[in-house]
Amino acid sequence: MKLITAIIKPFRLDDVRNALAEVGVSGMTVTEVKGFGRQHGHTELYRGAEYVVDFLPKSKIEIAVSDDLAERAAEAIIAAARTGKVGDGKIFITSIEQTIRIRTGDTGDGAL
Q: Parallel, antiparallel, or unpaired for β 42-46 and 49-53?
C-alpha cells in the first residue's frame, strides 16, 4: 500500500479529483494549506503599501492506494494538475505498513 501526498494549485483540485476517480481512487483527504517552493511568493500592493506574500495558498491531497494503483494515480494527478508554470506542486509517495478500518476491523488492502 502507498500513501500519495500531492500539493497542487487550488484551482486544479476539481480536475485532479475527477482524474483520480477515473483511475479508480475511491476516497481522498483534502486540506487547504499554505507554502512555497521555487515560487518564493510574490509582492502585492494594498492601500498604497507594498508587502510580501511568502506563503501561497495550495491544496494538499492525501490518498491511500494499493501498490498496483499508485503509479496510475500519480500519473493522473500529474496530467490534471500540470499548468506548465512554476508552482504546479509536488507529489510524495510513501509506503504504508498497515491500514485498519476502524468500523469493521478490516486490515491491509481490504481496509482501503
A: antiparallel
Total domain count, the chain: 1
Residue 37 has pLDDT above 90, yes or no: no
For the domain that residue 41 is a member of, what is the CATH number? Answer: 3.30.70.120
Domain coverage including residue 69: 2-111
CA distances 8 to 49, 50, 85, Å, are 29, 27, 12
Cβ–Cβ under 8 Å, residues 81 and 18: no
Task: Summarize pLDDT for 70-89 with one digit per residue, the tens.
Answer: 999 999 999 999 999 988 99
Q: What is the pLDDT of residue 54?
A: 76
- Using CA atoms, how far apart are residues 30 and 59, in angstroms rounded to an integer? 7
Q: Is the pLDDT of residue 42 over 90?
A: no
